Each structure stands twice: as structure tokens, then as C-alpha cells.
Amino acid sequence: MSYKSNTLYQALLLLTPFSAAWAVEQLPTIHMTANNMTANRTVLNDQNTMAGLTVIDREQIERQQFQTLEELLKTVPSLSFRNSGGMGKTTGISLRGTSSQSVLVLVDGQKIASATTGTVAFEHLPIDQIERVEIIRGPRSSLYGAEAIAGVIQIFTRQAGHADGMKPYASVSYGSHESYKGNIGVNLRQGASWANLNATAIKTQGINATRPTAWGHDPDRDGYESSAFALKAGHQFSDQFEISSNLLSVDAKNEYDNGPDAHGNIKQNVYGLAAKYKPVDRWQSELKVGRTEDKLESVEYGTKSKIDTLRDNISWLNSLTLQPNQLLMLGIDYQHDKVNSSTNYTQNKRDNTGYFVQYLAGFGAVNVQAAFRFDDNQQYGQHSTGNATLGYHLNDHYHAYATWGKAFRMPTFNELYWPADPVFGGGGNPDLKPEQAENLEIGLKGSQYLDWQLNAFMNNIDHMIVGWPAQNVDKARVKGIELVLGQNLHQWVWNLNYTYQDPKNRSGAYKNKQVVYTAKQLLNFSADYKIDKWLIGGAVHYEDKRFVNAANTQQLSDFTTADVRVTYQLTPTMSVQAKLANMFDKTYQSTADYNQDGRTAWLTLRYAMQ
Q1: Distance (Å) of CA 492 to CA 28, 31, 414, 529, 530
Q2: What is the CA 230 to chain-centroid distance, rounded?
Q3: Rounded to whole angstroms, what are the CA distances from 16 to 22, 60, 485, 526?
Q4: What is the domain range of residue 209?
Q5: CA 67 to CA 579: how far, in whole Å?
Q6: Which residues form the TonB-dependent receptor-like beta-barrel domain (predicted)?
Q7: Across residues 228-239, what is the average pLDDT?
Q8: CATH number, domain at 262?
Q9: Residue 58 in 3-state DSSP?
Q10: Residue 572: how many CB atoms within 10 A of its CB?
């Protein structure tokens, strides 16, 4: 047995049953048969969703003791991460062998990617303020427009429960590297009105983010601190009309290596207002207005620079029930992007308007979904996308589907308009075209005895944007399979997912080379066992090797990490939790020249009024 296989085997042994004779108490079910609203921009049962789907809710977040959003996301099939030195440091993702810019990320329906880089600062989104995360794998540009080449991640902030009254909750945590976390919130509901208020604070001394080979290396600890506030509220005036609003505001400071006292001051804000109106039984209309702000002030060698991006979004969705088994959706999305920076971009704003139509139907055992979207962008002109899906219920427990779809990614402001350096050259290219993708996928899912999914996909990407100055030169093809298993059996709950993918360049000097920073194999396993007032669990995470350059001459080694965790229910409203992450103290890199946490421990005290 190879060392790699032996390490994985030893880690899996940690998660075997402790004793079948212990008291039996039912655990919450795995949420593979709940509802989601991201796959089709309307509420749909997970089992009827014809796409690769993962839903992680508040119960799972607390049970698995995720300390960051990154920890949550890396358990998702086909998703790997890149982190630049620990908590609060720049974090990127790869979904189905693509880049971070190819994944659309929403917070309560609002796009939050930076207009300048096209990436999302996952590291600043507080896990304690998240109610649920829905991840759809596969293209969704025909519904959402640009960015959704590989999939969509939608993050829902916490909201009030269904019972009337005031339900406060709180948690405090202490962890390795002098790390502190605190969270306090309250659920409020009275009749047709509801609200959730939530505040979080985080501080850590951190680790030495860089290795000696890194540019600007400084052998010190790079700390991080942040505070966040969230508010979500709504009122239902009648069966026909309701309104809701949401706010998420984050302030953070991140230390990094690039001169003495180099650090970034970050502000992220997400605002939203929505109104739903149902004039007749067959027609529901929803209007959403939102704004996202991403502000970064960098301080290096005593000099400050700033990049502020703003995105305004307006969406109008109309759902028409043609028959009890047929739904027609019509929608308009407007987006305005603006950049305010100490760097002089040749263009600093642009508008995009998208129009889409979607048809959903069920005819006996057959399900049909089709969508078409037309986008008109101020910078690159007009672009059309579409998708079509056919599903078939083999019986009450098994469901098969096949889907085809097109998607695209529009160039970022940096790729288009960043000014060329007078010495080093480079800069943006205003003549760039959008990246384009075409995806084929077949899937099979079941819910008898255990919940499972098996998906096979192929994604062809053209006009890939690479180089500096950026050019449309490369093509890539990603082929892969995903296996997802999960079961709730008496006092046990467990889930496993495995991905094999082959992301290859298809053109140029690096034809048939593996796409940079993509792993061919990914595996996650998690299990929990309930014993009276105790909940004992653990997890294993494996990522294959990845290359850091297009020629595939430099690589990062594969790695396996294992975690153990325990929860003890002190009272019906209070629990204490402990977690040991990376328990074998594995040394690894997810980004070249940057360190990752070794063995870390967390202790949490949690309170929630029932």
C-alpha cells in the first residue's frame, strides 16, 4: 500500500463505530430531500432538481463545527480551495476544474464578486451569520447571466424561525493561535412580522502566512480581526403581499507580508429589499433591489492605496402557473458596476441588462426544464445563453436526468482597463471577448435506504482569458464524475463524496497539460454518532496534487487531513463543543509559497433558546 493510500486508510479508521450497544437517539436527517431555490430561481424539491446539488444548513454547520466558510465549502463535491496563509487570508476556489471567476456567488440573492478581480472574498464572510448554503454544480448563465460557468453558490444569512416570540442565541469560542470568536443574535417573530439580528467578532494572531521563498516574506505572525452585523426582517401584509429586507456589513483588518506592518482594511456591505405580490392564484411577481460594496484600503511601506467597487442590482421575476404541473418564469435583471480607485482605470463603470425565460413541467414520470437568456452589456455587447434538461423518474426512489447548457464569463475591470506599467508593461485589454462554455451532464440520484447522487459531466471552455496583458487565447475541457452518498441510520449520520475530474488545456503550447491549481481527485467523509447527551464525530478531507504553472513543471503535493469533534448537551439550551482539526499535523500547501494551519483546537460554548 502506498504512503498516500495508507494515510487515507488510517484517517478513515478513526471514524468507525465505537460501540453498537450505546443508547440510540435519532439524529437530524441529512438534507438531501429538502427544498432549494438556487437551481431554478424558484423553490424546488431537491429530489426533483436536475443538477448536482449540495445544501448545507445551520444544523450541519453547528454539528460539524465549521469555523470558517472555507471549511464548509471544501466539503462540497468537485470543489477545492486555495488559501494564502490561514484565517482571514485570501481564499479562492475551483469548482469542476475552473477558476474562481467562473463561479457565481450570491448572498441573499445579490452578486458579491468584486468587479475589479471577479473573485469573492470568502475569508471575510462570517460562518456564524449563515443560515444555509446552496451549491449548484453546472452552468446557470441562462438564468443568472455572466460568471455561472461552473455553478452557483448562494449564501443565505440567518433568519427568524416559525414560532412567535423572542429567541436569543449566542456562542463564544477560543482556539489555537490565540483565536477568539463571539456571536450573539436574536430571532423575533410576532404574527406576520419577523426579524433576525446578529453580531459577530473574530480575532486571531494567526500564523506566519508565507514561506521563505515567497515575495516579501517576513518571518512574523500575520493576524486577522473582523466584526460583522446582519439584519434580516420582513412582514406579510396578506396572503398576496409581503416585503423583506436584508443587511450584512463586515469590517476587517488583515495583516500580510509585503513590507513592515503591511495590512489591508476591508469593508463589505450587502443590502437588499424585496417585495412579493400574488395578484391571482396563477401569477406571482417579485421585485428585488440590492447593492453590494467591496472596499479595500492597502497599506504598504506607509503608503495607502484603495480600490472600491459597487454593484447595484434590480431583478423582476414573474412566475406563471400554466397548469398544476407547468410553470413559466419571465425575468429581467439590471446590473450597474462602478469602480472608485487610486488606480486610474480607463473606464470605471458599465451596465448590463438581462432578459430570461424558463419553462418547468412534469408529465407523469418525465420532467422538463428549458431556459433562454439574452444579455446586453455596455462593454462587450450582446450575448445569448440557453439550457435544456430532461428528467425521468424510474420509480418513487430513483431519478435520472440529462442536461445541456451554455454559459459565459465577462472580463473583469482589471482584465479590461488596468493601466499598463511604464516599466513592466502589461495592463488591461479593452478588446477582450467573454469566455464561453458548453456543458453536457448526465445524472442519477436515489433516496431508498440511503441518499445518493452520481453525476458525469463535460465542460468545454473557449476564449479563456489568460496572460498579462490579458488575451483570449486558450481552450480547456473538463471531464469528470461525482459520487455523493449519505445516510441517517438511527443514531448515525454520515456522508461521503468523491470526485474524479480531468481538467486539460486544449490549445497552444500547453495543450493536454493539466489546468493550473486544479486537483484530479477530491474526497470528503464525515460521520457523527449520538450517545445520550454526547455527539461524537469526525471528518476526512483529501485533495490530489495540483500544478502551479501551465507547463506542469511545478506542483504541490497531495494531502489528507483528519478532524475529530465532540459536543456535549449541558442543558436543553446550552452545549459545549470541542474540535481538533488536522489532528495528524499535516504540513501542506494549497497555494505555492503560503503556509496552512497545522494541528489546531477549538473550544465553543453555545446557547440557543428553544
Answers
A1: 10, 14, 49, 5, 7
A2: 19
A3: 14, 20, 16, 11
A4: 3-608
A5: 10
A6: 187-582
A7: 97
A8: 2.40.170.20
A9: helix
A10: 9
Q: How many helices (H) and strands (E) does the chain have?
A: 5, 33
Query: What pLDDT sits at residue 260?
Result: 83
524 in Cβ contact with 493 (< 8 Å): no
Strands 179-190 and 303-323, by their bridges, are unpaired
Record the pTM. Answer: 0.93
Among 198, 171, 98, 199, smallest CA distance to 141 is for: 98
Strand 151-157 relative to strand 103-107, pairing: parallel
Bridge partner residues of 565 (DSSP): 537, 579
- What are the cell numbers at 434? 467573454
Instruction: From residue 188, give the alpha-carbon distance in Å to each of 124, 273, 377.
Output: 26, 19, 42
Alpha-carbon span 224 to 183, nearest angstrom: 17
139: three-class secondary structure by DSSP: coil
Cα–Cα distance measured from residue 167 to residue 469, given in angstroms and rounded to the nearest whole number: 54
- Number of structural domains in the chain: 1
Question: In whole angstroms, how large is the CA radius of gyration of the chain?
Answer: 24
Q: pLDDT band at residue 34, thresholds of 50, 70 and 90?
A: low
How many residues are recorded in the chain? 610
- Grid cell, residue 476, equals 480547456
